[in-house]
Task: structure prediction
Amino acid sequence: MATTADTATRPGVTTGRRRMADRDGVLAWAFLVPSILYIVALIGVPFVLAIAFAFSDVSAGDPSFDWVGLRNFEAVLDDPVFWRSLRNTFLFTVVSMVLIVLLGKVLANILVADFRGKWVVRFLVLLPWTTPVALSSISWLWLLDSIYSPIDWVLRQFGALGPAENVYWLGRPDLAMGSLIAVHVWRLVPLAAVIMMAGLMSIPKDIDEAARVDGAGYWRRMFEITVPLVLPVAAIAALFGAIFTFTDMAVVRVLTRGGPNDATQVLASWAFYRGIDGGDVAQGAVIALFLFPLLLAAAVLILRAVRRIEVR
Result:
């Protein structure tokens, strides 16, 4: 076995390693190739298969590939549940992201302040994000139970509900959608807060101190210094959150399974129920493909925001 001393006495080997380490082009491809293979295997191949399945009659019972043209697209566009899922996807994403950005900014301002026990508070704030989504959703399933809900018990103690009255959080369409949005916001606010906290901590303190010397108050410093400097970071947090929201169906799956009467279906969950649970792989692929232009637009906006930060 070659030792360090042996290697040191072999100048040819050492020189060869140095030449390899200095060749930026070779090292760049050595680091890029595994990532490219990973993306092609886990994203590119399933995407091509989804496009192929969308023009076929592949199902769970008959995996043979037969070309059917646009028949699956016509069937999906004639389905009222698809349009309800599309509307719910936009409603779910827009309302969630507005609340996540606002609450994340407020929470980030609190977390960057100096107070006793700050690290404990930061740890507790991060818990919803670090908890597995299935586990946290099951906890919320119990909290929103139609009979044994602790939230209903608290409301009864304050007189907001009668002694035998219950709020069917997941049994009424409006309340069910509101509950899904509340749980999703609860999950993603810590991530947005951490991203914005990094943006707040990157602002040079001398800018804030100079504004204080000039007599700028809290709100003037907030809207003329803090918000403009944090805005690119907040945009990235919002767009990442939008992508998570567009593609996430875990909360819907655990809490409502798309009910009641498909009132809380989103595109991701409807594609799953249609393609996997229902066995109609072709129509499930068509529904999933409608997510692509939305995610592509979000990816372009993220890249533009990153480029704007790099220019600054």
Notes: Residues 1-5 have pLDDT under 50 and may be disordered.
